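Q: What does the predicted 3D structure of Chaperone protein HtpG look like?
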Amino acid sequence: MSKKGTIGVTSDNIFPVIKKFLYSDHEIFLREIVSNAVDATQKLRTLASVGEFKGETGDLRVTVTIDEAARTITVSDRGVGMTEEEVEKYINQIAFSSAEEFLEKYKDDKAAIIGHFGLGFYSAFMVSERVDVITRSFRDGAEAVKWSCDGSPEFTLEATDKAERGTDIVMHIDEENSEFLGREKIESLLTKYCKFLPVPIIFGKKQEWKNGKMQDTDEDNQINDTHPAWTKKPADLKDEDYKTFYRALYPMSDEPLFWIHLNVDYPFNLTGILYFPKIKNNLELQRNKIQLYSNQVYVTDEVQGIVPDFLTLLHGVIDSPDIPLNVSRSYLQSDSNVKKISAHITKKVADRLEEIFKNDRSTFEEKWDSLRLFVQYGMLTDEKFYDRATKFFLLSDIEGHKYTLDEYRTLIEGVQTDRDGQVVYLYATDREAQYSHVKRATDKGYSVLVLDGQLDTHTVSQLERKLEKTHFVRVDSDTINNLIRKEQPSSEVKLSDVERSSLIKLFEARLPREEKKHFNVAFESLGTEAEAVLITQGEFMRRMRDMAQLQPGMSFYGELPDSYNLVLNADHPLIARVLAGEKEAVEPSLTELRARVAELQAEEQKLSAEVQGKKPEEIPAATKEAQENNAMELAKTEGSINEQLTTYAQGNELIGQLIDLALLGSGLLTGEPLAEFIRRSQRLL
């Protein structure tokens, strides 16, 4: 028997389509061919279990061999094999799928079958110049046949010799894909895609170092674990079994915090184990660690869009026959079963965290720093998870004590409620850099939280939206009296306009000149015991800048300079000393200038009154000229005053010292300015 024919396809040549468009990655061919071999093996097991195959199944395994000289890769199985008619139907007619038909016939046992691989067999042509199929059916009296095709629609089908049932797929690798003839390359692909297939996958012999080189031993090199942990019942596994499996998946990772064993058979099939890793403070480094399988066949580790975004921070395995294999990611994202699975996993994760929190809170608190980023990300991106997570989300104070949202509100609302009824949550992002601000708050009897994580700014904004009458304020965003405004301030700043103006110019003259920093001089009456000068940074703009780092749409805020307030305590003796020094050294020379400024300002008001209510064309030219001349002289006179104040300030070490002390207290004094501060301090001592 020998025949030639044309493969039943609707295109003139299906193979260029396969090579270029059907699969995005050529290496997938090995998964497809090996998976088909496992499929055929599982079919034989199913037939034997229902009595349709009464022979000896024997050693059911799939072997993969390379012949570099012949430039072939061969995948062999001892499964059901095919008759000539089945080759005609399942190889030549691309529209059919033996797996699909088999599943329908044996639907009660379909969990043992890998499933519908579509055009999987034809993926071999992505790397091959010719593919041979040598097969013999398990049926009594069946004869072996050989099918061969060189990548065109034409094929040959002829009788051949084959002693045992099963199928050999022989791929003659083309020059362009010679890399797939290397032992290390094939072993790495088998490990990646076939590590947990339910039938032993054998690739040559295990090797050992002997006589200066790697040599084969007598032991078969089995690639896979046919019974991975997630396929077993949770009752049959101990904690060490879960940890051992985790080490097999992620050999270089730290021990996981917790895990969830998934085992669902309705309304969809889902098994798997998800681990909570020790998450570092960086979202992007954590993704793509969940491995997606379909009946133990590896699909992908890029699960973004398939599971909720925050779940991509978990590690582990999800396995479901309801997840289709050879489809696009966009199809997976819209698949109804995938959506149901995603929602179920979200619920199970929240339930597991709540269970651990309720049953072993001390352990949960110990591991909170590693869980926090994950929980926050879930709360920010998944509304249902937020509703569940509020029961176990924790806030940490400066002393390291941890509280649920309800517990902390109860703790602070009596002391930290402002005059508008807002409960104010004070926090620090760096307890060391903001130490002086933290101490002022704690000395006043306030509680201070530590919010130093990557997502804390976003979490704060979310909690303000969700929780009634709640406001988060960083401890360095204002002076202590203004952080939680209880009532109108009792003491006012007792400085004249001239004194205020002089102090502003004196301190502005010594402030740092940096492109990304802007300072505004302000005054408050803080009492003689408070600092003479301190620096605050407004809550709104700082928070917007922080959020801009993670949200591209807010990049505008990220480009704005940091804005700080340099607050002068008008009650402090050192501020009075600066003012007295200026009055003694500079004011005598400014008397005439200030008098002239007063005259010019009076003239300006007079001229403004004359033109009030008039249109520009109705104002006499002489009046316009007088206004311009007056404005020019006023600017010049004020400039002379400012110049003398600036000159005085630049030579005044007390002003420089006070500013640098404030910068130092806020962590803003570094580099050369810090070195100059140290030298000046030594001089003053």
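A (community wiki): The structure tokens above were generated from the sequence. The longest strand covers residues 201-210. The CA atoms of residues 33 and 44 lie 17 Å apart.
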